Task: inverse folding
């Protein structure tokens, strides 16, 4: 199977996918309620899309194509309402966050669909270990070469996205010490990491064809890259974020990526270099491990600073673009994260107060579902 | 000094307690074997061995002294009822009124179907009503124990627990009402027919509320020390049971309501170990053995057909009610069938209500009481198997065997 042609899409349009946790209201452990939830949700018309995921304790919400923060956050809130209402009707709580703090992977059940069963066969326990919850952001690109350009330029800022969204410190009942432990699960997949350094679509097609003839991959879906092109949508997809604890933060991070993309395409106009990737895994690890406190090394100047400082600097640089995209409110939310902390800080503080991961999960669900 | 001073005298005089101890060992081993080789719930073994060795079966074990056993049974049932109550989220009924609807429909259908069937068999109206109220209750003991043992989770499990708690409450209240009518029929004034249920509900609620508050206080201070906490809790359950009996309230209602109230008032979810610790688990095992020992199948001799029809009619009423409202309450066909079937078990609650009625009306004990007892024995033995199969069919048990 050869690669699909790159579909046209409106430049800088955005779309958000959020993987959510389904929890039992009795003990706030994960519960295999996705079929029940989807059956209930199907009865109500709603914007966007709500889909099953790999295991039956996950559900995914997708927005339609959006242009700006206001409408995006509104659509996410309406999706949240549909999902939360279904949850209340079925005694199921819904929450954000990148990992469940005390679920046991062996208790997860694979969702009954051919693709999920195939993946489960192929990856074995990794598929069940993959009960982790991420946010994916799509950015519309004017053309395929522009998409590859944007993908490589954004790669440099992957630590920003990780640190801002990080909300997975707890895994299997323990504090891992990581800000985003979720990404450690992604690394165990053979085709994770970053896309190869090719800058024009022809070359990318050649790479893809070579990979398919080896039999390793069948479609773009088999690449678990941090950022990957999505030709059928005409977008690139940033996949490193944890699902944040609220839809507002999810929308703000999506708009941060959008404003940064505008800055890259309109103002910066620098060609990516292969050497930009020399510091890639180091920076990425620092952001996963230490979040906003992580060390960030600039690939060009080799200057060292914290991820927090680099984000603050970037927020200043893209301020005009954010204004142009009507995303100033989103940028305010991100500045707030720089001062009060990301989801991981909230989770650690809550745990320090409650001494019980079940309580943390309950509060996390209450935070995500909102009061009504 | 003679031989007999330090050697036992032959033949040995063996106390019944020794046989009982042996029964405990055998029952637990048989339960374990059933689980390992046939994947059946362990309690089938406990009840089955009690039934097999007890007066109702091979009569190897003599009749038990009722008063001494009563405390064990009451305490274990109290633990299970409180556990059931504390697993049930009453707020759910507000978010999904269809579940409340299903519960009411299921209880009403059971009552009327059983009542109608008994009238057709020429049973007196008031007696039929008493039996029909008892038939409403699903066994909390079997449901809680089987759910715990199979580690089930999901819509069917949650609804089964909630609907069991609710139909036990209906059963106790309406049973009291029906018994009051029975009294009315045997010649007391109207006021003494109406007041008993009111006193029962008000008094039980007050006692349950006190229990709930005390429980929260104690849990707040002792919750970290699981063992200490569970002992205090058992003391409280025993106290509440005896207090309820002394005040002529229903221990069943008090402990169930206490569990519901504690859960309702709680800000944070709490999970407790099964049966609040291993001491509780031992009591629960003893209770099931005792239920087996107390089993009385003599009703089958005279009215096998009635027993059979009663079981079937009750099962159909419960299943159809759940099925009718399944779509609105948000479950699929398969889940609804599983839930309907899982509501069928009868055990301790029905047994206690039957015995209470028999004490007040000896004629009931030797008539319809025996029919009910036979139903209970059958549904007690089959109950755990049915519930486990239903939860499996609904896909709510873990996929891998542990």
Result:
């Amino acid at each position: 199977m050869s690669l699909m042609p790159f579909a046209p899409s409106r430049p800088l349009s955005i779309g958000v996918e959020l993987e959510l946790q389904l929890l039992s209201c009795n003990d706030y452990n994960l519960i295999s309620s996705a079929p029940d939830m989807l059956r209930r949700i199907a009865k109500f018309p709603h914007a966007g899309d709500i889909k099953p995921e790999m295991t039956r304790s996950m559900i995914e919400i997708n927005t339609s194509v959006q242009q700006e923060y206001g409408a995006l956050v509104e659509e996410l809130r309406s999706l949240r309402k549909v999902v939360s209402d279904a949850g209340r009707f079925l005694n199921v709580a819904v929450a954000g966050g990148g990992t469940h703090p005390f679920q046991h992977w062996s208790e997860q059940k694979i969702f009954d669909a051919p693709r999920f069963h195939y993946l489960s066969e192929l990856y074995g326990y990794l598929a069940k270990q993959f009960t982790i919850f991420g946010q994916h952001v799509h950015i519309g690109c004017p053309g395929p070469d522009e998409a590859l350009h944007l993908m490589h330029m954004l790669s440099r800022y992957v630590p920003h996205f990780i640190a801002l969204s990080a909300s997975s410190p707890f895994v299997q009942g323990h504090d891992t010490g990581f800000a985003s432990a979720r990404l450690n699960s992604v690394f165990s997949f053979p085709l994770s990491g970053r896309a190869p350094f090719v800058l024009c679509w022809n070359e990318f097609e050649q790479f893809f064809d070579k990979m398919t003839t080896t039999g390793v991959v069948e479609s773009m879906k088999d690449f678990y890259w941090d950022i990957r092109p999505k030709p059928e949508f005409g977008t690139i997809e940033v996949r490193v974020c944890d699902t944040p604890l609220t839809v507002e933060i999810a929308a703000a991070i999506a708009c941060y990526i959008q404003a940064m993309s505008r800055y890259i395409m309109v103002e910066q106009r620098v060609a990516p270099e292969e050497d930009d990737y020399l510091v890639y895994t180091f920076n990425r690890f620092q952001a996963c491990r230490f979040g906003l406190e992580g060390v960030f090394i600039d690939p060009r100047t080799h200057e060292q600073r914290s991820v927090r400082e680099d984000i603050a600097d970037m927020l200043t640089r893209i301020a005009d673009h954010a204004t142009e995209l009507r995303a100033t409110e989103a940028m305010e939310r991100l500045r707030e994260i720089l001062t009060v902390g990301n989801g991981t800080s909230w989770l650690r503080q809550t745990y320090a107060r409650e001494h019980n991961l079940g309580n943390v999960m309950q509060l996390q669900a209450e935070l995500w579902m909102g009061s009504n | 000094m003679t031989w007999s001073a330090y050697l036992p005298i032959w033949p040995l005089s063996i106390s019944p307690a020794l046989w009982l101890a042996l029964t405990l060992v055998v029952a637990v081993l048989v339960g374990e074997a059933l689980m390992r080789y046939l994947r059946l719930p362990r309690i089938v073994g406990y009840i089955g061995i009690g039934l097999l060795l007890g007066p109702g079966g091979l009569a190897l074990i003599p009749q038990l002294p009722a008063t001494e056993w009563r405390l064990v049974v009451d305490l274990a049932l109290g633990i299970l009822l409180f556990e059931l109550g504390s697993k049930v989220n009453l707020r759910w009924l507000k978010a999904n009124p269809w579940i409340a609807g299903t519960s009411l429909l299921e209880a009403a259908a059971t009552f009327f179907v059983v009542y109608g069937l008994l009238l057709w068999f020429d049973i007196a109206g008031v007696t039929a009503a008493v039996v029909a109220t008892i038939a409403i209750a699903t066994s909390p003991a079997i449901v809680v124990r089987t759910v715990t043992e199979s580690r089930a989770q999901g819509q069917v499990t949650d609804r089964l627990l909630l609907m069991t708690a609710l139909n036990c409450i209906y059963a106790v209240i309406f049973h009291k009402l029906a018994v009051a009518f029975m009294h009315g029929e045997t010649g007391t004034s109207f006021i003494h027919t109406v007041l008993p249920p009111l006193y029962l509900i008000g008094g039980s609620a007050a006692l349950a509320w006190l229990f709930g508050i005390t429980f929260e206080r104690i849990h707040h201070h002792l919750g970290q020390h699981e063992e200490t906490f569970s002992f205090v809790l058992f003391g409280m359950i025993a106290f509440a049971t005896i207090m309820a009996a002394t005040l002529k309230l229903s221990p069943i209602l008090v402990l169930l309501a206490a569990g519901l109230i504690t859960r309702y008032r709680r800000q944070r979810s709490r999970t407790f170990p099964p049966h609040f610790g291993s001491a509780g688990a031992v009591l629960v095992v003893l209770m099931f053995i005792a239920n087996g020992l107390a089993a009385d199948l003599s009703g089958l001799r005279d009215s096998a057909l009635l027993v059979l029809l009663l079981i079937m009619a009750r099962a159909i009423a419960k299943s159809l009610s759940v099925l009718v409202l399944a779509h609105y309450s948000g479950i699929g066909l398969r889940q609804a069938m599983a839930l309907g079937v899982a509501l069928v078990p009868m055990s301790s609650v029905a047994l206690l209500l039957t015995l209470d009625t028999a004490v007040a009306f000896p004629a009931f004990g030797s008539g319809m009481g025996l029919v009910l007892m036979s139903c209970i024995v059958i549904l007690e033995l089959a109950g755990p198997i049915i519930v486990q199969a239903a939860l499996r069919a609904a896909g709510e048990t873990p996929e891998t065997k542990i």
Notes: Residues 191-222 of chain B form the longest helix (32 residues). The radius of gyration of chain B is 21 Å. Chain B touches chain A at residues 87, 89, 92, 95-96, 153-155, 158, 268-271, 330-332, 335, 395-396, 398-400 (CB under 8 Å). The mean pLDDT of chain B is 87.
